[in-house]
Amino acid sequence: MSTALFHAHSGLRYLVLLAALVAVAYLLRGWVARRAWDRAARVVGAMFTGLLDLQALLGIGVALARPWEGRYVGHVVMMLLALVVAHAFSSSAKRVADDHARYGRALLAVIVPVVLIIGGILAIGRRVV
Questions:
Q1: Could you give the CA distance from residue 103 to residue 107 in angstroms, rounded to a whole number?
Q2: DSSP for residue 36
Q3: pLDDT in tens, 53-72
């Protein structure tokens, strides 16, 4: 069971990073072009955040099912920060009336967590891709 959880958690990172790439491309396009906020912008952000939530849930399962090592502390801290930042910026983007600012905050809700995710992956000595 712990091996399956580990492989699911390890493999899901590629979907999280792919969702981040799609979200950044779409949101950056909307921010640069000063487009009106649309449903697709909300969906790509929610897709990233939802996959990140699933990744965190699988990570908790891995942490509970496998022996704990000290090097995991940095990984867990970085991932929890990524999760909190993603939700905080995403939530604040919903409350902004200006579409340009909304795109900017939605971009931060993806870019900052991705930087933290990369740091968390590197903290356990794994390659990002």
A1: 6
A2: P
A3: 999 999 999 988 888 888 88
Give 43's DSSP letter: H
* Tens-digit pLDDT profile for residues 21-35: 999 999 999 999 999
CA 114, 120, 122, 128 dihedral sign is negative
Give the 3-state secondary structure of the chain. CHHHHHHHHHHHHHHHHHHHHHHHHHHHHHHHCCCCCCHHHHHHHHHHHHHHHHHHHHHHHHHHHCCCCCCHHHHHHHHHHHHHHHHHHHHHHHCCCCHHHHHHHHHHHHHHHHHHHHHHHHHCCCCCC
Q: Estimate to the nearest angstrom the gap between the alpha carbon of 82 and the chain centroid.
A: 6
Token look-up 């930087």 returns 115
Tokens of 94: 């919903």
56 φ/ψ sector (left φ>0, alpha ψ -120 to 50, else beta) = alpha
DSSP state of 114: H
**Rounded CA separation 105/124 (Å):** 29
Cα dihedral 66→120→90→7 (10° resolution):
-40
